[in-house]
Here is the input.
Amino acid sequence: MRSIKVKDCERTDIPNKRLKLRFVYCIFGILNTFIRAWENQTFNSGFILLGIFNYSPTHIFLFSLVLGIFTVAFMGNTAMILLIYLDTQLHTPMYFLLSQLSLMDLMLVCTTVPKMAFNYMSGSKSISLAGCGAQIFFYVSLLGAECFLLATMAYDRYVAICHPLRYSILMNQKICGLMAACSWILGSLDGIIEVAVALSFSYCGAREIPHFFCDVPALLILSCTNTLLFERMIFICCVIMLLFPVAVIIASYVHVIVAVIHMGSGEGCRKAFATCSSHLTVVGMYYGAAMFIYMRPTSDRSPTQDKMISAFYTILTPMLNPLIYSLRNKEVVRAFLKMLGKGKSREQIA
Here is the structure.
C-alpha cells in the first residue's frame, strides 16, 4: 500500500488532470445555466418579431432590394471561399484569413435574412424560443469572431510589410490556423454566455421584439426583471471584443504607415497601400456600425436607428466585403479569370 501511495504522489500528470477537470466543470456549469434558462422559458410561447418592412409599395421595393443584396452576399462570399480553396496560389496566410472572413459573413447573413424573409412573405411574425436562442448565439458569436479575425488580418499585414524576411516564421500555417481558431472560440464563448443569460430572464407582456431578428438589446426591453447588471456585462464584453481589436489594428497600421513612408519606392508604397486600404475600408464600416449599436447608453437607443444600423452591418457589409477584396486585389481577379477560363475550355471540349 505504501509503494502505491508513493507512486501516486510521483505521478506528474495529476495537475494536468485537475486543470482538465476544472475546464470540464466550467463547461458543464455553462450548460447547466443554459438548461435552467431553457426550463424557465419552456412554458412561454416564444416571441413576435415586428420586422422592418410593411406591405406598402415602397417597403415591398426595399424588401426586394434586401433579397437582392442577400443573394449577392451569399454568392460573393461562397465564390471567395471556393476560389481560395481551389487556387493553390492563394494558399497563403492572408487569403486563408480572408476565406475565414467570407465564411463568417456567409453565416452571419444566413442567420438573420432567411427568417426575416420567411416571416414577411408568410405573414407570420413569430419565432420560437429555440429559434431566438439560435439567432442570438450565431449572431453574437460571429460578430465577436469577426472582430478578432480583423485584428489578426491587420497583424498579418503588419508582419508582411514591416518584417517581410521573417513572415514565413511569424505567420506560418500553424500560427495562422491557431489565430483563426482562437477567433472562432472566443466568439463562441461570448455567444454561449449571452444566450444563456438572456434566456434566463423572465419576459412578459406581448413579447414583441421591435426588430427583424432576436438582438439582445432589443430583447432586454421586454424583460420583467432587472437587467442592469447584464447590460453592464454586455458593455464590458463590447469593450473587450471591439476596443481591444481596434487597438491592435491601429497599432499595426501605424507601424505599416511608418514603414511605407521609409520605403522610398513608389511602386512599393502603392502595393502596400492597395493591400491595406481594402482591409481598412472593411474595418471602418464594421467597427463603426458595431460601436454605434452596442456602446451607446440604453436611454439613447431608438428602435428605428438600431434596425437600420443592424441591417447595414448584418446584410450590406457581408455583401461589400467580397466585392472590396476581389475588385481591388489583382491576385483574386487573376484566380477568378483563371477559373472562368477553365470553365469555358471544358465547355468547348464537351
Notes: The chain is about 80% helix and 0% strand.
